[in-house]
Design goal:
The protein is an alpha+beta fold. It has 6 helices and 20 strands.
Length: 364
């Protein structure tokens, strides 16, 4: 596994209206789209932290990200077209390079440039099949995007998928890392078809990230578990992790034969709608193509079930006008994630060299 990232924390709070709101950490990286969505040359409208953006890929393969508004007459640049190494507005034909500089104003005699004529640009990176955007215009990022832990390891196969959920960043992150719901909502696909086992849980908190280790857990019952570790009932190593502001990760390992890591980059579209970009990386003692063909529809079914329950949760929050929680120890990371996001909103992130630990028992 790669070292856990330390993310910067310049915070801009967002209004909540009774529901855990988006901690708008603007100097961090968020996934805006899949690389394949831009294709070889393309233009795409996306929203990140409530910001309407336009992404485009040039003929040379370079990616640019602008606020989706032409500085000339406010027309969406996402309606424009790529020409060479620039994006041309469809209204008056102004053309901008990937840095946002205006390189042509048709009909104008003289130089096209000038600060007022620049498109508002954002740092962008293409990595691991994702297009990452740093939603702080004109800034120099202090970090690089999170690298998938299995990057460069030819033993692993990675499947990318996207699901959109009606829910806050907190709700979607908690759902991605919540163990107890899997035996009910995903019964038969993941847990819920055998008698529960009592295991130890250790929650570790570094102030800007949190991890739960599940000790003594047998291979999860259900179809997904049989793919993860075919023909085995051995104890697995299981970790769930959340990194501020938007990364969730689930890791299962069984000896040297099977390893399964799901890294989810959650991009808030608004306070109450989130897009989840999942990278499912696996190494199992079965042909990877066969596992991919079986695993992909199972993962999509699980994501679809989560999206339905999150939508129902969000609707009930609107119905009752806000949140009310009754938590126990087994809501291990949900409480921690909410606390981290609230600390981020207040600009009070405190990082610890040695993690704070909490131990308890649960049945899975």
């Amino acid at each position: 596994m790669s070292e856990l990232p330390l993310l910067p924390a310049r915070i801009r709070p967002a209004p909540g209206k009774g529901v855990t709101s988006v901690a708008k950490v603007t100097d961090a990286w968020y996934v805006a789209c899949l690389s394949k969505e831009l294709g070889r040359v393309g233009v795409l409208a996306r929203t990140v932290l409530g910001l309407p953006l336009v992404l485009f890929r040039t003929q040379a393969g370079k990616v640019g990200a602008f606020l989706d508004r032409c500085p000339h007459r406010n027309v969406p640049l996402s309606g424009g077209s790529v020409e060479g190494e620039s994006l041309r507005c469809q209204y008056h034909g102004w053309r901008f390079d990937t840095g946002g500089d205006c390189v042509e104003v048709p009909c104008l005699v003289g130089e096209p440039g000038g600060p007022a004529r620049c498109a508002e640009s954002f740092p962008v990176r293409e990595q691991d099949g994702w297009i990452w955007v740093y939603p702080s215009a004109g800034s120099t990022p202090a970090t690089e995007p999170y690298a998938l832990p299995t990057r460069g390891d030819a033993r692993y196969t990675t499947v990318l998928d996207v699901v959109e959920a009606d829910g806050s960043l907190h709700a979607v992150a908690e759902n991605a890392l919540d163990v107890p719901h899997t035996a009910f909502l995903h019964r038969g696909l993941f847990r819920g078809v055998s008698e529960p086992n009592q295991i130890q849980v250790v929650v570790r908190d570094w102030g800007d990230r949190v991890e739960a280790e599940y000790i003594g857990e047998p291979r999860p019952a259900g179809l997904a578990g049989r793919i993860l570790a075919p023909g085995s009932d051995a104890i697995v190593q299981h970790f769930d992790r959340f990194f501020l502001p938007c990364l969730a990760q689930v890791e299962y390992k069984l000896g040297d034969t099977s390893h399964f890591v799901v890294t989810s980059a959650m991009t808030p579209l608004s306070d109450h709608k989130t897009r989840l970009f999942a990278a499912i990386s696996f190494r199992v003692p079965l042909p990877s193509l066969l596992v991919k063909l079986v695993l992909t529809p199972i993962a999509r079914r699980i994501f679809a079930q989560d999206a339905v329950i999150l939508a129902r949760q969000a609707e009930n929050l609107r119905r009752f006008g806000g949140e009310q929680f009754a938590s126990t120890d087994v809501d291990a990371l949900g409480q921690q994630i909410r606390r981290l996001l609230k600390s981020a909103e207040r600009g009070q992130i405190e990082r610890y060299d040695e993690p704070r630990e909490k131990r308890f028992e649960m049945r899975v």
